[in-house]
Amino acid sequence: MTEHQHPESREKVALITGAAQRLGAATARELHSRGWRVLVHCRQSREKAEELAGELNVKRHNSCKVLQADLGNDIDVQALATGALAAFGRVDALVNNASGFYPTPVGSATPVQWDDLFSSNARAPFFLAQALAPELKRQHGAIVNLIDIHAERPLREHTLYCMAKAANAMLTLSLAKELAPEIRVNGVAPGAILWPGNQAMNIPAQEKILQGIPLQRLGEPADIARTIAFLLEDAPYITGQIIAVDGGRSL
Fold first, then answer.
1. Which residues are registered as beta bridge partners of 144?
2. CA 190 → CA 9, 27, 93, 139, 155, distances in Å?
3. Alpha-carbon distance 245 to 170, whole Å?
4. Could you tell me which residues are beta bridge partners of residue 67?
5. Active site residue 161
6. In which element (H, E) is residue 65 found?
7. d(Cα 69, Cα 20) in Å, to the nearest integer?
8. DSSP states of 40-53 as a string?
9. Catalytic residue (choose from 36, 101, 118, 161)
């Protein structure tokens, strides 16, 4: 897509949660390169979000804005939806990427951890989708949820996270049925793309994971970003599907 094909008033707009860094930022860059305007949501990483927006706005004026919200706060979630609609006057895609991820071993897991993991992975994605559904219907838009191969195959000591991602998977299927035919809803389930950024992982643990991947390597953020772009742009007859982008690990 080229710029002259998309006058500013007609450029599609995507809201990407958790888009200041990692997979969310890669998705923002990918969609932006295809002519989309992007709304970069962040919770605490405001500086990185503003850096990303500055980078994208240099490439195309007024094509990216930052929206800050705590997805664990219901008022913030509603304000995020309202702010997204106001930013560029339309929303064509919602990418629910933001996600808490950390171990919660049985015996030490807390209700606070439950609320935190479920709010980012299940509660906020639902209420954002609900709030934006009227606009997405008007635009015949789409929703993509970032799930995880561990929604089906549990990860040791991550019970709450796996449960929350399983809820996200069912959210994807259920919304696809309820919001059709105007809105398509799909999921992307990354495998080993980036090592966790919030915890150390030793070399033997990394090697063990790589041994379980038929393609014998980590994926790249671009693998996820391109799959999301495909589902938003080039898959008009695909809905209710969860695509594993995992190098065959789920086999």
1. 95, 186
2. 33, 13, 19, 28, 14
3. 18
4. 41
5. yes
6. strand 64-68
7. 12
8. EEESS-HHHHHHHH
9. 161
pTM summary value: 0.93
N-to-C CA span, the chain: 35
Distance CA 107, CA 109 (A): 6
Rounded Cα distance between 157 and 162, Å, is 9
Cross-strand partners of 185: 143
Encode the chain (251 residues) as per-residue pLDDT tens digits.
444 344 445 899 999 999 999 999 999 999 999 999 999 999 999 999 999 999 999 999 999 999 999 999 999 999 999 999 999 999 999 999 999 999 999 999 999 999 999 999 999 999 999 999 999 999 999 999 999 999 999 999 999 999 999 999 999 999 999 999 999 999 999 988 877 655 556 778 788 888 889 998 889 999 999 999 999 999 999 999 999 999 998 88
Angle between helices 124-139 and 159-179 (to 10 degrees): 20
- Tokens describing residue 243: 């695509």
* Nearest residue to 15 (alpha-carbon basis) of 29, 5, 28: 28
Burial 196-234 (b: 16+ CB within 10 A, else e): eeeeeeeeeeeeeeeeebeeeebbebebbbbbbbebbbe
Q: 134 exposed, middle or buried (CB, 10 Å; 0-12, 13-18, 19+)?
A: exposed
- CATH of 3-245, picked from 3.40.50.720, 3.30.70.920, 2.60.40.2080, 3.90.25.10, is 3.40.50.720
